[in-house]
Design goal:
Low-confidence stretches: none
Helix content: over 70%
Structural class: mainly alpha
Shape: flat
Length: 93
């Protein structure tokens, strides 16, 4: 959705979009009325991280796909791995 912008501008906008996204995540995780962690939100976020990695894998061959660097994949797969481990640990808690 940012492909119409110059590359540097699109990168800055894409990066800036993550600030409110992370604020939303922190609010979702820690903003429960009981003051504890919102387990349902965390489980949903874990599932999102896994699905997100799968989608990146599916779009790998698309001509406009640009997340092929080691740096990008460390973040993408790192989040998916953490989400999978957290779901696995939560299932045994």
């Amino acid at each position: 959705f940012l492909s119409w912008m110059p590359e540097e501008t699109a990168f800055r906008v894409f990066t800036a979009i993550h600030v409110p996204l992370f604020l939303f995540f922190f609010w979702g995780i820690f903003g429960s009325e009981s003051g504890g962690i919102n387990s349902a939100f965390v489980a949903g976020l874990n599932i999102f991280f896994i699905v997100h990695a799968v989608l990146h894998g599916l779009f790998w061959r698309h001509p406009d796909y640009h997340f092929k660097t080691l740096f990008s994949w460390l973040w993408i797969l790192g989040a998916a791995l953490c989400g999978a481990v957290d779901l696995w640990m939560y299932s045994f808690a």
